[in-house]
Amino acid sequence: MEPCRSLALLAGSLGLMCVVVALSTNFWFVAMGPTSSSHSGIWPTKGDEHPAGYIYVTQTFGILAALCGLVSMGLLVLSCVPSLSAPGRGPLVASIVAFAAAFSLTVAMAVYTSERWSQPRHPQIQTFFAWSFFLGWVSIPLLLSAGGLSLGAHCSGPRPGYDAL
Fold first, then answer.
1. pTM of this prediction?
2. How far, in Å, are 8, 82, 105, 113, 145 from residue 138 at the CA level?
3. Using CA atoms, how far apart are residues 96 and 99, in angstroms rounded to an integer?
4. By C-alpha distance, which of 70, 62, 144 is closest to 107?
5. Summary mean pLDDT of the chain
């Protein structure tokens, strides 16, 4: 049980860190022209008064994923302290919340990717996704791993019996 829980904490912490860094940085999309370059993210700057609707969807589901990841990691940490957690239920709930975080982030990244991919291209401007965008995609398998490992910790843990009540 302990190796699964420890690995779940590691994977979840890395996934949560990647989500927070991806959401807080402005290097999701880069455009390079003949004389200059520019980068943008999911948070509007002063020049963007009304961002497109897909930006709001990406922001909402990204923040939801970060919050779910934080709750999942908190529950896993609490499950390490027997007096603070419900017997055997901490890893199970942490697993469900980690899977919810991965699903929310998948929705956010899929919406952003599909909308940016379908935008018209200019012949003199080269556009591509940047490192914040890829960090968002990397965090999905990490959160899925945290969910799977915490589910493994739950399944391999001791079952409460009549004596535990």
1. 0.84
2. 16, 32, 10, 14, 11
3. 5
4. 62
5. 85
